Amino acid sequence: MDIKLDPSRDDLPLMANTSHILVKHYVLDLDVDFESQIIEGTIVLFFESGNKFKKQSSSTEETYPSESNEACKFRTPEPCHIPVTNTRTVSSKMGYNDFVIRGKGEKDTSGKDGNHDNQEQASGISSSKYCCDTGDHGSEDFLLVLDCCDLSVLKVEEVDVAAVPGIENFTRSPKLRNQIVRELVALPADRWREQLDYYARCSQAPGCGELLFDIDTWSLQIRKTGAQTATDFPHAIRIRYTTKPQGRSVTWTSDQSGRPCVYTMGSPINNRALFPCQEPPVAMSTWQATVRAAASFVVLMSGENSAKPTQLREGYSSWHYYVTMPMPASTFTIAVGSWTETKPEICSSNDLVTERSFSPFEADFRYVGVCGHMEYPCRFQNASATTQEIIPHRVFAPVCLKGACQETLLPLIPPCLSAAHSVLGTHPFSRLDVLIVPANFPSLGMARPNKEKTGHVSDSGSSVIKHGLNPEKVFMQVHYLKGYFLLRFLAKRLGDDTYFSFLRKFVHTFHGQLILSQDFLQMLLESIPEERRLELSVENIFRDWLETSGIPQPLQRERLAGAECGLARQVSAEVAKWVRVNRRPRKRKRKETEVLEKLLPDQLVLLLEHLLEQKTMNPRTLQRLERTYHLSEQDAEVRHRWCELVVKHKYTKAYRNVERFLQEDQAMGIYLYGELMVSEDARQQQLARRCFELSREQMDRPSAEVVAEMLF
């Protein structure tokens, strides 16, 4: 792994040594400060180490039986080459007795006078000595490696879970801290409430010894002197830290009403600049979080509960969310802002019955099925949940959009949820929050990498995502488009009934699990009778749709066939009319001879794409086009094509539409910046630079970098 990675351009390293130890649960306790644009607090991590990593320890206190002697044998893992650029070594000066568990609303002031960037002192831990020491081998101490970036780590300590009052009623070994955690993470799913309660209580236990740590560009490395194996390493640790205003996991910005907000936005580095974590998707974990903010703000998170604020000291509120379904750390989301909840004006009693919330283990278990995922309170095992077409949902928006959401968005959610249930079956989550995000949300970069494309995976579990930090990658839409048309192609080959039946079966079979494209395609092909496969295979699909550039042959044939459908023929007829209108000489006429048809939004996109192929279009035609279809009032896809026409033909009267698009649809506007600059028209280039200067501070970093390269 290159230790001199350019964090703005090159491959993205996944550093966590997940092959040796796994985080099973996170407990976050955070304060959101809009004035300084930081999130600060603590995170407690609860670990599980597998038998295959156990090494006979000199300490008998923390051993547990293995299944066989083979499980205790280890080979030396290959070096994982942890980057050591700008490494800073720290042993926090604060004793563990100085750690104070804050009460609700009590502001933390520790660490304010130093140690924020871990530069105060060197603890003697050598990066060269320990950088490869992430396994259970030799006489060196075990090194825990967490994915971490753009964080100031102030203190790391072991948590004394044995000091929790009443813990002796829960465990067989009340004095063995690691054994307590092992029993806690292994609790059966029907004790999930008790498990969350003990996680919370353990997270507030005092520290019992500071741990040495290093922090570099991409990782946080932690060790305990004398703990030579993952089994011996503390299974509950607390990390006190703060984020940085320039951290790349969250965006500090303003909503459409001009009020401050912050949210996770699907960053290429995921959440490692929000909290230290294990980034590889194999690290499936649960979490619970308490977040405090000024009382004027609403805190939304991807939790299973519909949290309500708890009033703290004057002017501050606390919000608590939790998740019982293990998921990758990248799925953790948070949004804090002055959102307002949009509610329907009239709520019928039928809606209340339909949207009734079911707890993970409420009553009925007639629906019997074997789940393939790790144990958790699964809705697929709950007969009441499996028949719930519409799950409880809330809609939040900036104040200025409340009316539009109430009128347009709210009525759409119940039928969409019902349709999803009819096609895919049981909703995997018990509720849904919908948030109208600011215009700078980078909506084109949400895909996660395929594990097989992360490069070589070392024995420790570390790897790299090729080109994961290239800001231009998120705007390359070929993989999305090919994937969409591949699914359409397969649906046509199978027929809708067979295809949707398969999707329902697929969701039921693999819910709660990590799955690869190969597994999806293999299961799909197995559901097709052999005589209908027509030489389809996973290998052929990958060759034609993934490994071959250009439009796949099946899609070209479908495109030709699609040109014959009724809606497409209607568009073709309208294109011909507009071509005639554009060629007509300018002279006064009492009445236009062409009768133009109303078109659906998808038809408008197709119409504008065809008109983009015309070499010239005069301003009179463009003006009539805009007025006929009210193009400036259409959805973003239609307006994007319209702006392309405006730019191509230098229709200055509609430049206001281009400016609006660049301001309000920033993610899609990236392409328009390129077209404005390529035109080499001074007025258009000036427009692009002016819009960029107005939006630059609000844009997400990758988008701003890409646009800046185009403009300057």
Automatic annotation (TrEMBL):
Residues 105-125 are annotated as: Disordered. Its cofactor is Zn(2+). GO terms for molecular function: metalloaminopeptidase activity; zinc ion binding. SMART domains: Leuk-A4-hydro_C. Keywords: Hydrolase, Metal-binding, Metalloprotease, Protease, Zinc. Coiled coil: none annotated. Residues 105-119 have a biased composition (Basic and acidic residues). It holds the Pfam family Leuk-A4-hydro_C. Residues 566-711 form the Peptidase M1 leukotriene A4 hydrolase/aminopeptidase C-terminal domain. The keyword Zinc applies. Transmembrane segments: none annotated. GO terms for biological process: proteolysis. It comes from the Eukaryota. GO terms for cellular component: nucleolus. Belongs to the peptidase M1 family. This is Aminopeptidase O (putative). The gene is AOPEP.
